[in-house]
């Protein structure tokens, strides 16, 4: 409850108080040995980092380093929590997150091996955020990242018992793929190749659109729209592609307006 209270409070306070809350949360993250107190203040810290990260670079890097040790743990809930907060911290650090990348790549590979669907989803989100914010620093794992997430989409669409978790959260697979695609300069040859591959994937997902709940529909449509926007961005120098696929690209509008 205290964590929720702090998060709500941040929406209605001025910069001076934000700095005070940030400094307090940072101090707790540094000093406390109580894991659950740490995680509570970590959420507050990460939320502030997402919006004001450029003012707290050193704190963001320091707290991220402590998170690495928790990612080596065995509690899936704690690992998911840490990965979720890491996304906010990376978003705030932007290119300043580069010093974290070598160790992050190793940590994310280990997290993938967990076979925990919840952890894998969060890893995908971290990867998408890293591509968005640090671009070229991630290009050495571009193919493996895309292949892994695409394989998860294929498994999700098979609707096997194991993959039903991914199917219900398929937007968390589409978003990072779109972020990866958008991180590549459109003039690079690999951008066109990846665009064609992912455009097929986005259309495949769209054709499996079966959500009944309105909230699920909204976030699903947001993810697909973001994916198609990345495809359009990747086609900045390829008018023929846009002309040939304009009906498919704008088919999402029918679902949005339905």
Describe this structure in a few short sentences:
This protein has 258 residues and is mainly α.
Protein model, in words:
The chain is built from 15 helices and no strands. α4 packs antiparallel against α5. The protein is an all-alpha fold and 258 residues long. The two termini are 38 Å apart. The model has no long low-confidence stretch (mean pLDDT 86). Helices cover 76% and strands 0% of the residues.
- Secondary structure tally: strands: 0
What does the average pLDDT come to? 86
State the helix count.
15
| SSE topology string | HHHHHHHHHHHHHHH
Strand content: under 5%
- Structural class from helices and strands? mainly alpha
Low-confidence stretches: none
Helix content range: over 70%
Task: Report the biggest beta sheet as strand number plus sense, adding barrel if it closes.
Answer: none
Radius of gyration: 19 Å
Tell me, briefly, the overall form.
globular
Cα end-to-end separation? 38 Å
Topology:
Blueprint (H helix, E strand, L loop, with lengths): L1 H8 L5 H17 L3 H18 L4 H15 L4 H18 L7 H12 L4 H18 L7 H17 L5 H5 L2 H12 L6 H19 L6 H21 L4 H6 L1 H4 L2 H6 L1
Helix pairs in contact: 1-3, 2-3, 3-5, 4-5, 5-7, 6-7, 7-10, 8-10, 10-11, 10-12, 11-12
Brief descriptors of the model:
258 residues, 15 helices, 0% strand, mainly alpha
């Amino acid at each position: 409850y205290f964590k929720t209270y702090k998060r709500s409070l941040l929406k209605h306070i001025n910069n001076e108080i934000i700095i005070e809350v940030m400094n307090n949360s940072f101090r707790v993250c540094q000093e406390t040995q109580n894991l659950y107190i740490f995680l509570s203040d970590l959420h507050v810290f990460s939320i502030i980092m997402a919006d004001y990260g450029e003012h707290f670079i050193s704190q963001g890097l320091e707290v991220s380093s402590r998170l690495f040790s928790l990612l080596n743990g065995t509690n899936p809930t704690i690992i998911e929590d840490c990965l979720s907060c890491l996304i906010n911290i990376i978003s705030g650090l932007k290119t300043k997150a580069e010093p974290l990348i070598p160790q992050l790549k190793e940590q994310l590979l280990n997290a993938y091996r967990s076979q925990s669907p919840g952890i894998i989803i969060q890893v995908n989100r971290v990867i998408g955020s890293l591509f968005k914010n640090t671009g070229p620093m991630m290009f050495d794992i571009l193919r493996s990242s895309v292949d892994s997430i695409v394989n998860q989409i294929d498994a999700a669409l098979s609707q096997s018992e194991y993959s039903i978790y991914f199917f219900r959260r398929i937007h968390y697979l589409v978003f990072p793929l779109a972020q990866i695609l958008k991180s590549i300069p459109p003039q690079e040859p690999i951008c066109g190749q990846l665009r064609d591959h992912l455009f097929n994937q986005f259309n495949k997902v769209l054709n499996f659109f079966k959500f009944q709940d309105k909230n699920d529909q909204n976030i699903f449509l947001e993810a697909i729209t973001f994916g198609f926007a990345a495809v359009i961005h990747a086609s900045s120098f390829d008018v023929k592609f846009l002309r040939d696929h304009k009906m498919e690209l704008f088919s999402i509008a029918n679902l949005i307006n339905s």
